[in-house]
Amino acid sequence: MNPRMSDDPAKRKGLGRGLSALIGDDPIVAIAKAEKESVKTLPIAEMAPSPLQPRRHFDDQAIEDLAQSIRENGILQPILVRARRVGDPAFEIIAGERRWRAAQRAQLHQVPVIVTEIDDRTALEIALVENIQRQDLTPIEEARGYQRLQTEFAYTQEQLAERIGRSRSDIANRLRLLSLPPSVQAMIEDGRLSAGHGRALISTRDPEALAREVVHRGLNVRQTEHMVAALAKPRAAGAGGKPAAMDADTAALARRFADRLGVKVEIRDHAGKGELRLRYRSLEEFDRLCRQILGPDALG
After folding, report:
1. I want to staple 149 with a disulfide (CB 3.0 to 4.6 A). Which of 8, 155, 187, 259 is the partner?
2. 150: how many CB neighbours lie within 10 A of its CB?
3. Is the pTM of the predicted complex or chain greater than 0.70?
4. Domain 11-137 CATH (choose: 3.30.310.10, 3.90.1530.10, 1.25.40.20, 3.40.50.10230)
5. Domain boundaries, the chain
6. How far apart are the C-alpha atoms of 56 and 96, rounded to whole Å?
7. Is 227 helix (H, G, I), strand (E, B) or coil?
8. 168-294 in CATH: which number?
9. Contact 253/267 with Cβ under 8 angstroms?
10. What are the mean pLDDT values of the chain's consecutive 10-residue runs (300 residues total)?
11. Torsion of CA 136, 140, 293, 281, to 10 degrees
């Protein structure tokens, strides 16, 4: 299963609108217009991938196909770079790493570029938007990019939604995937599970085991949701006087909390008393949660 096949095309049309003043529909072309930069030619050896690049997986066959196109037609869109502060190579790739990799495979020595001056925050935003527009990121890569903007640049989900051009609920749903065990995240990254599968598994007691079951049985998202709900019902009685595990309705409410807060949420009820648990995976996520609930000055 391809985790990106279920994305709504209507949502993709709005991507990057928050950055339109800077990058418009095409990051590279619009930056050139905004800064009146001309296309230059630089040696491939003078460029290196950016540590801000959210994309970690490059399909080898797709690179080879692009390399063949470059052999026949050249590079049709320049690569966006900025000067590195220190060290060699001299330039850092902001947008166009796939083209750079394919150009090397096509045995080019020089490529067209636009050199711009932007800060780390804008560089990460541009890299995210370009990859999302081209559907090049897995849901996990996308979520990690959002998380980095939150932790390193103190973005709220609302600010992310505005800048990236996603709805706040889309941002929250992507971030919630990072609460899944690494093995389940890996299944989403390699396409065995979709983001929808991941969201259905977040509130379960053993998402890793259920994820393996989903893959083994080839369940779609709706079937997975039904399985999760069915597994929750036998535990709803709360035998032994212990708080009952979440039934399907409570789990749905927990998911609504999780969508709003961007973290895993569990509701435990026993005779009208219980607990609302918020689970965070790092101090950075805890800090973000505090600011989201208590306000931007919550931690002083």
Report:
1. 155
2. 23
3. no
4. 3.90.1530.10
5. 11-137, 168-294
6. 14
7. helix
8. 1.10.10
9. yes
10. 39 40 44 58 89 74 86 86 79 87 91 87 78 74 85 83 83 92 93 94 90 92 88 55 60 81 81 78 80 71
11. -150
